[in-house]
Amino acid sequence: MAAAERSDEAAPAAAGGDPRRIRNTCILAHVDHGKTTLADHLVASCGDGLLHPKLAGRLRFMDYLDEEQRRAITMKSAAVALRSRDGHRVSLIDSPGHIDFCSEVSSAARLSDSALILVDAVEGVHIQTHAALRQAFVERLRPCLVLNKIDRLITELSLTPAEAYMRLQRIVSDVNSIYSALRSHSYFSILSALEDNPSTSNSSTEDLPEDFEDDDDNEDTFQPLKGNVVFACALDGWGFRPQQFADLYAKKVGVKSSAFLRGLWGPRYLDKKTGKVVGKKAIKSADPQPMFVEFVLSALWKMYELVLKDGGESKRVKKLVENFQLKIPERELKNKDPKVVLQSVMSRWLPLADAVMDMVVECTPDPVAAQGIRVARLMPKREVTPEDAAGCPEVVAEAERVRKCVEACDVTVDAPVVVYVSKMFAVPYKMLPLKGVNGELLNHHGASESEECFMAFARVFSGILRAGQKVFVLSPLYDPVKGDEVQKHVQEVELQYLYEMLGQGLKPVASVGAGNVVAIQGLGQHILKSATLSSTKSCWPFSSMMFQASPMLKVAIEPSNPTDLGALIKGLKLLNRADPFVEYTVTQRGEHVLAAAGEIHLERCIKDLEERFAKVKLVVSDPLVSFKETIEGEGAALVERSKSAQEFAERTTPNGRCTVRVQVLRLPNALTKVLEESEQLLGEIVEGKTAKREGVLDPRLSQDDGDSAAMLRQRMIDAIDSDLEAISKQVDKEKLDRYRKTWLGYLERIWSLGPWQVGPNLLLSPPMKSSDSVITQDGRQGILVSGRSHVSERLGFVRESDAKDSSNLDNGESAADAPESLHLESMALRNSIVSGFQIATNAGPLCDEPMWGLAFVIEPYLFADGSDAANHSDQYNIFSGQVITAVKEACRAAVLQNHPRLVEAMYMCELTTPSEQLNPTYAVLGKRRARILDVEMQEGTSLFTVHAYLPVAESVGFSNQLRSLTAGAASALLVLSHWEAIPDDPIFTPKTQEELEEHGDGSSIVPNLAKKLMNSVRRRKGLHVEEKVVEHGTKQRTLAKKV
């Protein structure tokens, strides 16, 4: 490879380098806002010959996959090592902008210390701009802003300099308000407070920008005068910061550059008489122009007008070239295309790479300063119990030392090696370098077995990593304190080779110091998605990454030729390792199901399977859309339903010893949302774990268990209050107070969550009344099996001492009036009751989909056994299964008798379309049951932005249909928004007199939407579907007339 055979003039990733001379940054933006084009110019200028400047902006160097070039969008994160003018090493990571590849954005952000947020000056802030800012905030990255495509304001919109200034000012204000909202949000503020006070470290903060974490809450994050905003045109390769114009004009005006700079943004004006920068009130001119308009934008507008009108051979253009001392070849000025001449002049007058690289070096932190801030997010402190600490004090002390080394970005020889792998990516063996650092031939093991080599996309956070070194691979579940109990979560591996990433190219290096990004060969069989590498077992794994969305689009795949099934399974395993976001599962029916983020992501996965990993022809099913099940009742209707006495569903075990009565309630929507968002944290709190995470982190919650439980408890109460506030005008205050009191009482009785112990459904223990604890039925004595409010205790709704006292009181009363054996058996059946609840909530009665937003009050009664059975253990095993079945059937029956509803996932759809294509756009949205929220016209253009909710079930083929009906003029972006209940009753049958009169016996009722969706899911799962096979059973009639 040409890239791999570059000269080794400067060993950028060499061990022992000063990490303070390193910058790691990623590019984040909405799709098509110019990320890869910007990266092209940075590579061409600072990449040591990787890309010729003539090709910058058009080659798309970082998009080296064929599919990326064909679709003209970035699909994966790619890194390249650059060097600034003053010798700083900059690791630049280009990331995708499409929501389908949000996992790649998370991978890039985890390895970076700062982020370049790009915004199109014409389109402004879009939905993925919000996501980019949120990603930067969650990962504690220092953001900088690049306002791209400034040239479109001149050539396309034909704005005046004053109008363009107002537009730019509004965009900067919008971005600042979004980031300020992230910082000022109550939960984010708590997270910031915790992470802004990391433990004492040896790392110095002298080089940390003064506004990196100590910004005043009222101060804007992005300020052009601070130098963290660049105005650019990436396609033509020019860009600037106000400092450049301040230096240029200060000499002419005769003032200090710093004084002139203060006027180059905001309502600041230059008094021509005194030469001072003043406010608008002090200026005496009739129509004053802000200094940014007068000295910056007006100059740009004049340059564009002059070159595009007169061409490069005009005297005025040549005079400008001489005045600015620009070295432009004569043949470029004589070019007949004025756009080419303009690009030559502008790129040499205001080089884009110089402005961006200077901003990265001056306004973003080095790894030493950044890791001191980010360590609380990357390696949150673990609370170790006194028993564990006493059992292995050396391990705890060593783990704390490792954490301090990560915090200090320790690059000394004695420092422990800590590396984080954010993703695995596949590289064909034929693309790997053949020679090593010293020219020796590299032996790539496994090249004959597979054509793909899996590389680790990683960053060294402490120590010096060397090729051939042995390290421990720690999974996210690893706990160094537990020792032998978690051996399956740690494995020792010998690394093969280390590479410096140069886009598609790879350059071998012998060692890599802390603060550098690196590709590692030799971990393909040991890491599935991400992992932590350490030279010692006494190391806590890094916290998991946060993703913007979850895989929603599922398809079943199978080979066209059944004999290729083995190759397909092998290819699926390779794809699962290569793509950080794809999910591969095998259903109970034996289907191989692939879950992707969206249509484009799915198409890429199928293409990779067919052409790279499995190399077989595939048959892909229609998308398997997920639904959920709930019951009727929202808003004011929920309050009214809570007043009426709810019916109980009752089921009895076959042996008659246990009767289960179940009542189901609908949770407030806001409370359901809180439970869904906090699933990972709930799992930790319920199981009593520390702040270690097994999956996606909820960024709004702190890393400390006690504070997390308190905050989550408050969020649940606030959710109930918010729902009540929304309906306060429809329901009188007395009913609302009674409803609130009822639900706060329910929150004190949470026995379990479901499904999988963390879902948005509650199992409530029965209300404790001494009169109900012992009953008699058919001459048999029985007791109420009551569970302990375990979840409520963990969340702090009730104190453990109170719960124990209540439990002991009930047990004492039961034991006094009932046999001791019956009481012991009731305690043993508690797990069976919880298991039945978990099974029921995992597969509802409509179409075996998970239940959503329900609370079950279960009252199980256990009666004495009058038989004299010899084998009580066998009887108990059978009986426990009967109890599980009875609880499951009672829960499902309770849902069916309370007006069940189907719940579908909804996308937030953001469309951009010209005015003449609005009608076709509305037609497409109408056909797919979309609900339009708002339509806004982009100022100064004929483009409209449409926001709508689109059901996930209707999203398949949506983009293609939209493009075809609008002749490619409209584009859409889909982001998972929320779950929404379908108002139709899927099992409607006429019951009342009015319904019978209108519909008869129901046989002629056309299936409603909910029933159609329910039947499609049942048919796919092989469940019974009630439908007519023969619609007309009469004998076939012909047109023949028999006489």
UniProtKB/TrEMBL annotation:
Pfam families: EF-G_D2 (PF22042), EFG_C (PF00679), EFG_III (PF14492), EFL1 (PF25118), GTP_EFTU (PF00009). The keyword Glycosyltransferase does not apply. The keyword Nucleotide-binding applies. Residues 207-219 have a biased composition (Acidic residues). InterPro entries: EF-G-like_DII, EFG_II, EFG_III/V, EFG_V-like, EFL1, P-loop_NTPase, Ribosomal_Su5_D2-typ_SF, Ribsml_uS5_D2-typ_fold_subgr. Residues 20-258 form the Tr-type G domain. GO terms for biological process: cytosolic ribosome assembly. Signal peptide: none annotated. GO terms for molecular function: GTP binding; GTPase activity; ribosome binding. Keywords: GTP-binding, Hydrolase, Nucleotide-binding, Ribosome biogenesis. Residues 196-219 are annotated as: Disordered. GO terms for cellular component: cytosol; ribonucleoprotein complex. It comes from the Eukaryota. PANTHER family: ELONGATION FACTOR-LIKE GTPASE 1, TRANSLATION ELONGATION FACTOR-RELATED. This is Elongation factor-like 1.
